[in-house]
Amino acid sequence: MTGSDGPLVRLLHTSDWHLGRSFHGHDLLSHQAEAMDRLVELSREAAVDLVVIAGDLYDRAIPPAEAVRLFTDTVARLRQGGAAVVAIAGNHDSHVRVSVYDELLSALDVTIRGRWQRSDQPVLVTPRQGGQPVAVYPLPYLEPLLDGPELLRLGKPEAEGQRLRHPEVTALAVERIRADLARRAGTRSVLVAHAFVAGGSSSESERDLSVGNAEAVPVGAFAGFDYVALGHLHGSQQLDGPRLAYSGTPLAYSFSEQHHVKSVRLVELAEEGTPRVEVVPLGVGRALRSLSGELEALLADPRLEDARGAWVRAELTDPLLPPQAMARLRQRFPHVVELRHRRPEGDAVGPSERSQRIRSAQGPEQRLLAFFADQQGRPPRPEEARLLQQALAAAGRRAD
Questions:
Q1: Angle, to 10 degrees, between the axis of helix 363-376 and the axis of helix 351-359?
Q2: Range of the domain at 321
């Protein structure tokens, strides 16, 4: 990034690490460790003043011990490189657990904020180049509906007994933050938040925060801050020029993300003007590929050689599902994790008709054999029919 007159604040914006997550049953911790190494490297290369992690530090409220160790090791290395660290709880995190040592760690320039009640208490980060500090406001994920007593603490006494939507609760919390910022005239500001903001592009791997668009927070709710570092959406994107943006995840967590360029955002805040942002690809983790075609064609196509090292989702279009299809695919594509079968267009037997055909079979045994034939595209062989009959008989004995 280019320099500028006057002292700059440099920050690295990342989010949605989801440490401890798996991909179709495969452990991702080694890939996540590679991503963390790259984040630490970039932080040192860019000599950033601050690293912000905008929520979903872990993939679940009680993460595995290995994920916790990776998180604490990464934060320690970021601090050793000279950057302050500000992180917030996301909708996947336990607000209590991630912030249990917040007050203690703040003395070491590490903030892990899970309590929204402290969101109007900024972290003041002084640039390495000197100059006035920047006020960083960590706003953790707000539960979509807060009850009356909690809203009273947000300063809305008429809300007793109400249950407000996420956009309204977010607006109340941001009002408190703006009130504090107004007392700091001329101070540059960064808001770190975890929410679904209207206009953002989502993917399959995010936990839905809304019904339709009812819980989408409008862009205008975040007016008045020099930079808004968002988390929750897994694709890198900006919504109000470079000022308000999602960094996206460091790795792809679903096949809907296979065309994402996983990255972080390096941000420069001058004393005045629009922030300058550089989107830096991380280039780590296993690629994702979705393949479609008949089995023999996929196995023989030389153009698919680059998919050998990727996570693969295969859609087979053979008229009948070939036997041992997954095992044969895995011989060429060792990391195939999903297999689908799509009958060619013109297949006269639709799902409802096939279901009716199975239900019309006489007796449990004939229905089981009809179901097998529907799934495999052929009647069972004699030895397969015997195994099915034995399984049915065993199930009947257990039921008795």
A1: 150
A2: 286-347
Q: Across the strands, what pairs with 316?
A: 293, 341
Q: What is the pTM of this model?
A: 0.82
CB 49 within 8 A of CB 125: yes
> pLDDT at position 377, please?
66
In whole angstroms, give the CA distance from residue 389 to residue 391: 5
CA 246, CA 144: separation in Å to the nearest integer?
A: 20
Find out whether 42 and 280 touch, Cβ atoms under 8 Å: yes
**65, 67, 118: which is closest to 88 by C-alpha?**
118
Query: Which one, of 230, 157, 160, lies nearest residue 198 by Cα?
Result: 230
**DSSP per-residue letters across 108-168:** TTEEEE--GGGTTSPEEE--TT-SSPEEEEEEPPPPS---HHHHHHTT-GGGTT----HHH
88/16 same-domain check = yes
Q: In the predicted model, is pLDDT for residue 64 greater than 80?
A: yes
Domain presence at residue 4: no
Number of domains in the chain: 3
d(CA 398, CA 89): 47
> Which two tokens mark 172?
């109340």
